[in-house]
Amino acid sequence: MNEIIIKEEISVETLIYEIRGKQVMLDSDLAKLYKCVNGTKDVNRAVKRNIERFPENFYFQLTDQEHEDLQFQSGTTNKMSRTLPYVFTEQGVAMLSSILHTEVAEITSVRIMRSFVKMRRYISQSLINNNIERKLLDHDNRINLLEETFNNFKDNNNHVFFEGQMYDAYSLLIGILNKGKNKIIIIDNYAGKELLDILKIINKNIIIISKNINNETIKKYNNQYSNV
């Protein structure tokens, strides 16, 4: 059984799980990979003899919920152990390899370390790809919104009038001005008396920015109307 598990075709990456935001390996899987005669007993005995080398960020025991979640990750339905298993982080595995003395310890440690590195690269690349996809989606959404807004504006407000169509132009301008809710701002250096003649029937607060209307015209207008 152990010989089958440590063959090169068996991917160590499939034995790496994520718990508490860390990549970890089960004590039982490590016992098999390191060919421990007494299984997890040898692993945990070695740890207890060197417990000062294994702080919590190197080695910790799973909770009931974590054990249940781990079974879901691994696709198993039966209990992996009668007692809650221990797991080792990458640093913990490196420390474990230095205190275990089995015939495959050295070569197995190299394989495991390479697997941790590969998993980190895979996760980092996945995060980068997801971030790029989110940004591209957001970018596409912004472009679509701009195109939709532009199309609506183009359809509703861009018009060309030819000579003799003054009434149509007048009618359209009145319609646009009446859509204003509270205030209308007009920026037009060609504005003059003709514009004021149109604005006098618009019941909105109107601001005109123009160099073309003289003060005398504005004064006469304001003597009768108070909207500009």
Protein model, in words:
The chain is an alpha+beta fold and 228 residues long. It has two domains: 2-128, no CATH class; 162-224, no CATH class. It contains nine helices and six strands, in the order H-E-E-H-H-E-H-E-H-H-H-E-H-E-H. Helix 8 (193-199) links the parallel strand 5 (183-187) and strand 6. The longest helix has 53 residues, at 105-157. It is rod-shaped and about 105 Å long. Mean pLDDT is 76; it is low at 1-9.
Task: List descriptors.
single chain, 228 residues, alpha+beta, four-stranded antiparallel β-sheet, two-stranded parallel sheet, 9 helices, 6 strands, 55% helix, rod-shaped, disordered N terminus
Largest sheet: 4 strands, antiparallel
Structure annotation, total helices: 9
Main-sheet strand order equals 1-2-4-3
Per DSSP E runs of 2 or more residues, the count of β-strands stands at 6
> Radius of gyration over alpha carbons?
38 Å
Order of helices and strands: HEEHHEHEHHHEHEH
Structural class: alpha+beta
